[in-house]
Backbone:
């Protein structure tokens, strides 16, 4: 899977200095990904929009303190994850199972060409994952982070993150095979 | 060794479809984009009000400091006629500050007032020089409005000056002014805005205010349009400004000069801790005086230091009998620069027993370092294999940052009660006046940072203080040493910085 590349560091430096064009580029590059990440976590558009707005306000406040170390994407999603954590802390105690990982309305156009039953099975299996595992898949397949970015975000080694994701996918695939057998 | 892949590549596509999240509403994303960029513009304007950063090499800084003192000596030795001529050039306009009274100076023909929905707004000052146009307004609320933070959630737009030909001058700077004893009762706010220079020949403009800061959108009337007129300035438009001649020599540390025998009197650049406390100008008012000066920190800092500043922690102003002269700090009309902090005090007594003495017993300073120090480890801490909240480590480590010495005696792990995230609290002390430190984790700069002081004696600048290193995650990173960098420092210096000044008529 291809992931989007970090913005050029010159552009990031301009954004840190408050250059409007660079800030617009930052927004255009990340806003949809940040929104999709939130939607995947909270499961509704209203909260996702609210969290997305909070993230970009926080980003603006934090930008002057950002020091470029090649991981701007990880830095932005760190802010987004904090906002999500705050959101769930403010809400009722969250049953991790109630968090949305999938949107039943999304992907409808694609579904007709995919085995619908397999898709439903996979969605059920995704709900059975623990939150740490779901977050790994969310960062990888919804927020579209590279393994390098995920490693920077999670404070882990790239290889460890890659292996964790592959381990989850292997397990999910095996469970799917068993169900289909 | 990578995990063996047992699934076909199509499985990732299936997973992506299963996890697909809804796309955002384009209208919302467009609106958020506009708000994001508008807020960025506002932040930029507020930032411009804050100290701006110049990068002087230490050598250049010392050369400039030397030139400054030579210039002071030249001023002190120059003829009274030259001094008088300079005094005539400068005038003080309340709310605007000191202006050069040249032929290009234009001022507000008369104050303009508008009332809408219980709010009376007055443009009280407008000054157009060759370089800029300054507008000062205040408003009086006759209804009840809730004051909110100066950064509202959404911004309707920026103030502007609308010219008769349809062009606009955009705001460059804007900030709230100190209250003035002359303000009408109930004045909620005085605000100064700076725009670009007014074109020659244009004497009428419309001041457009989309919203009165700090009201939230919808909290009061918006989109104010107030026509104002400029006129050519009279010969002496502003109040006269007395430029204070400093002493030509630098006294030894903490020397208190005797009251000056002749006028104009003296200001004393007292260089205790490399800090000079200097009075530059005095504006006699009908009912008192405004004292304007600056505090300079003559300290060598690394070349890429982003900011450093020193300010008096508190100031006492007394007359010749030792009686305290009632005063209040007001907004200086100069912007601070690295190492130079302007200050301004208004004395609310006219008949004084001269000379007056301006005394500061402690100074607070701060330094923000650039990447040369931020990328260097200051100290290393081993939390062990399973650090947990409540754990304490007794340490005994000395280290140096820039020219300042530190001793690290303890570390504690705590959990932030609001966020649930963990942090380390390091107990430090320094013999060099440091009372606070801003720390970062060299290996996790995106998620770990913090600062703070406290615990030490912030009056004397002695004793241990706590510096925090906060992590944006709830579970400690285990199995690795914590390499800590110092991004900035806070200082308190004790001393005696004094300025004495007598009115020339005395």
Residues:
């Amino acid at each position: 899977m291809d992931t989007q590349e970090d913005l050029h560091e010159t552009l990031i430096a301009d954004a840190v200095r408050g250059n409007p064009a660079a800030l617009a580029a930052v927004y255009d590059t990340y806003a949809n990904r940040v929104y999709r990440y939130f939607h995947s976590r909270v499961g509704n558009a209203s909260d996702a929009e609210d969290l997305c707005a909070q993230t970009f306000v926080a980003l603006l406040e934090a930008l002057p303190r950002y020091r470029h170390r090649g991981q701007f994407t990880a830095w932005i999603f760190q802010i987004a994850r904090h906002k999500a954590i705050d959101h769930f802390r403010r809400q009722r105690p969250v049953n991790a199972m109630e968090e949305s990982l999938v949107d039943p309305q999304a992907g409808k156009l694609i579904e007709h060409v995919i085995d619908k039953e397999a898709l439903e099975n996979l969605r059920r299996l995704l709900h059975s994952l623990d939150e740490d595992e779901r977050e790994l898949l969310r960062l990888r397949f919804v927020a579209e982070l590279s393994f390098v970015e995920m490693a920077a975000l999670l404070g882990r080694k790239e290889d460890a993150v890659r292996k964790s994701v592959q381990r989850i996918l292997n397990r999910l695939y095996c469970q799917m095979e068993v169900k289909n057998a | 060794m990578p995990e063996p892949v047992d699934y076909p590549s199509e499985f990732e596509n299936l997973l992506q479809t299963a996890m697909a999240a809804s796309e955002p509403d384009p209208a919302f994303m467009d609106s958020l984009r506009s708000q994001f960029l508008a807020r960025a513009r506002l932040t930029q304007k507020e930032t411009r009000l804050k100290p701006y950063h110049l990068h002087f090499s230490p050598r250049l800084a010392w050369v400039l400091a030397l030139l400054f003192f030579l210039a002071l000596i030249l001023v002190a030795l120059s003829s009274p006629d030259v001094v008088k001529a300079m005094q005539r050039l400068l005038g003080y306009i309340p709310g605007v500050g000191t202006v050069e009274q040249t032929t290009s100076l234009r001022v507000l023909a008369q104050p303009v007032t508008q009332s809408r929905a219980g709010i009376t707004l007055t443009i009280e000052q407008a000054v157009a020089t060759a370089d800029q146009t300054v507008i000062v307004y205040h408003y009086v609320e006759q209804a009840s409005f809730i004051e909110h933070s100066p950064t509202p959630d959404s911004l309707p737009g920026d103030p502007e000056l609308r010219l008769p030909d349809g062009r606009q001058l955009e705001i460059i700077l804007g900030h709230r002014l100190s209250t003035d004893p002359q303000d009408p009762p109930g004045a909620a706010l005085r605000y100064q805005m700076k725009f670009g220079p007014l074109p020659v020949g244009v004497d009428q403009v419309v001041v457009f205010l989309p919203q009165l800061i700090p009201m939230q959108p919808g909290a009061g009337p918006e989109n104010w349009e107030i026509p104002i007129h400029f006129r050519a300035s009279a010969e002496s438009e502003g109040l006269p400004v007395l430029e204070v001649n400093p002493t030509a020599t630098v006294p030894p540390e903490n020397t208190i000069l005797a009251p000056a025998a002749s006028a104009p009197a003296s200001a004393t650049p007292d260089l205790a801790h490399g800090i000079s406390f200097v009075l530059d100008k005095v504006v006699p008012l009908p009912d008192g005086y405004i004292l304007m000066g600056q505090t300079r920190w003559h300290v060598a800092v690394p070349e890429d230091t982003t900011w450093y500043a020193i300010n008096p922690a508190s100031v006492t102003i007394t007359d010749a009998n030792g009686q305290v002269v009632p005063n209040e700090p007001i907004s200086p009309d100069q912007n601070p620069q690295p190492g130079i902090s302007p200050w301004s005090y208004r004395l609310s007594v006219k008949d004084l027993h001269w000379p007056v003495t301006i005394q500061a017993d402690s100074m607070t300073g701060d330094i923000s370092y650039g990447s040369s120090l931020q990328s260097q480890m200051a100290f290393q801490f081993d939390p062990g294999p399973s650090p947990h909240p409540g754990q304490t480590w007794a340490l005994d480590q000395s280290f140096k940052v820039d020219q300042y010495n530190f001793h690290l005696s303890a570390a504690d792990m705590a959990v932030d009660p609001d966020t649930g995230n963990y942090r380390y609290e390091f107990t430090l002390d320094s013999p060099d006046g440091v009372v606070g430190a801003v720390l970062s984790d060299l290996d996790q700069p995106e998620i770990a940072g913090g600062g703070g002081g406290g615990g030490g004696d912030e009056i004397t600048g002695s004793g241990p203080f706590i510096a925090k290193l906060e992590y944006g995650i709830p579970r400690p990173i285990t199995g690795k040493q914590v390499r800590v960098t110092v991004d900035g420092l806070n200082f308190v210096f004790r001393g005696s910085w004094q300025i004495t000044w007598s009115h020339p008529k005395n």
